Amino acid sequence: MAAELSDILIRQARREDLPALVAMFAADALGGHGDTTEPEAFPDYLRAFAVIEASPDQTLYVAERGGEVVGTFQTMVTTSLTGCGSSAMIIEAVQTRADMRGQGIGALMIEFAIAKAKGRGVRLVQLTSNMMRRDAHRFYERLGFKPSHLGFKMALK
């Protein structure tokens, strides 16, 4: 870990982190997920947090600096019959607070996730990124990720 990042703590998210996490997602105009800090939406975030927290194969993490949440990501481990029944880790919802970008926090979070994946003995780590996020693509490639698949989505809501 770089010296300037020695003050970053990566830990499992807690319920009290939700307002900071929601604010980060709501501030992401490019994401297009419809996140909002409107109070009437908060119960939806609470429900999702409860599902993630209860799952043995999902973990929501935060990066904290000086007691403030400055980044987040979520991991999910899936097992498939392909690859001789191996498991893969999916990294999702990677976000660094806008005023903290470019300081290495994102790389630290991804390296943390990869270490967790290795610790669980998974076969590969994968993630998706919005096609418009060219800077993010270069970032992931610098970390060793290779574009390999074309993804498709179907919105149901």
UniProtKB/TrEMBL annotation:
Keyword hit for Cytoplasm: no
GO molecular function: acyltransferase activity, transferring groups other than amino-acyl groups
Ranges of residues in domain N-acetyltransferase: 8-157
CDD domains: NAT_SF
Keyword annotations of the record: Acyltransferase, Transferase
Matches recorded under PANTHER family: AMINOALKYLPHOSPHONATE N-ACETYLTRANSFERASE-RELATED-RELATED (PTHR43877)
Protein's name in the database: GNAT family N-acetyltransferase
Organism per entry: Rhizobium leguminosarum bv. viciae
